[in-house]
Design goal:
Layout lengths: L2 H13 L2 H8 L3 H15 L4 E4 L2 E4 L1 H27 L5 E8 L6 H12 L3 E8 L1 H9 L5 E4 L6 E16 L20 E4 L4 H13 L5 E5 L2 H9 L5 E4 L10 E5 L6 E9 L6 H13 L5
Parallel strand pairs: 3-4, 3-5, 7-8
Antiparallel strand pairs: 1-2, 5-11, 6-9, 6-10, 6-11
Length: 293
Amino acid sequence: MHLDELQWFVVLAETEHVTDAAAELGVSQPTLSRALARLEEQVGVPLFDRVHRRLRLNAYGHILLEHARRGIAEIRSATERIAEMRDPDTGMVRLAFLHSQAGWFVPDLLRRFRAEAPLVRFELFQGAAHQIVERLANGEADLAITSPRPEGFRWRGLYVERLCLAVPREHRFARRSRIRLADAGSEPFVALAPDFGLRQLTDELWSEAGIAPPVVFEAMEIPTMEGLVAAGFGVAVVPVPRPERAESGAAYIPLSESSAKRQIGLTWSVDRQLPPAAARLAEYTMHKAHDID
């Protein structure tokens, strides 16, 4: 099974159209069709259903597509690592990080690092914790800055964020200096979607407080939550914001619970050796995180 033909299969699976896939790959349609036939012969089953001269990826094809993408990512990772080993001052770092770290920590970290390693290149991914863990597991990311600590990965804590209750400026809680989460048990909440790490932590805090408040909206990013709080849709558990990034229409009240915090950390795979450039960034991050402001 040739790598080129495996990559051709991925493109064909994504387009489900021989003409479009051949044009994208820069090969002839007969060449692509013969490659598909060889691949189906090797795996022993058809990978597509032929419907009205169109292709539809079938159950066998979906399985191969999942493994093909993973295999291609592993080969690409190996090629990059080999190239980078020839010169540890250059190469590619594939870094994944939380949405909430995109506003200040990651940009400041990379700005400082690039001053010391200007030839290092970056492939960046911004997303939710579960997406980040998936990219690490699939070999699509070398390093990640995330929370909570994922199981089965190496981890180094960088800093702790305290959590607070964001409420509208005119809310009855707005002038409090501190609040127990149980006091807000009857309030409507804006929260992240269930797969997000902060939402899982929020669920744990609700459980510890003995409350099950209504969730009126599930957002994809913390700024969206804060904006909806300011608009009066509800309250939200969020990290205490930096002053220049606070939502002007919201008040942020520290939570009394000692568990109302999340640790942001650096994580990477236990099964793969970090490429030299990524190892350099990891070492830099672990020693310089406390200096970033």
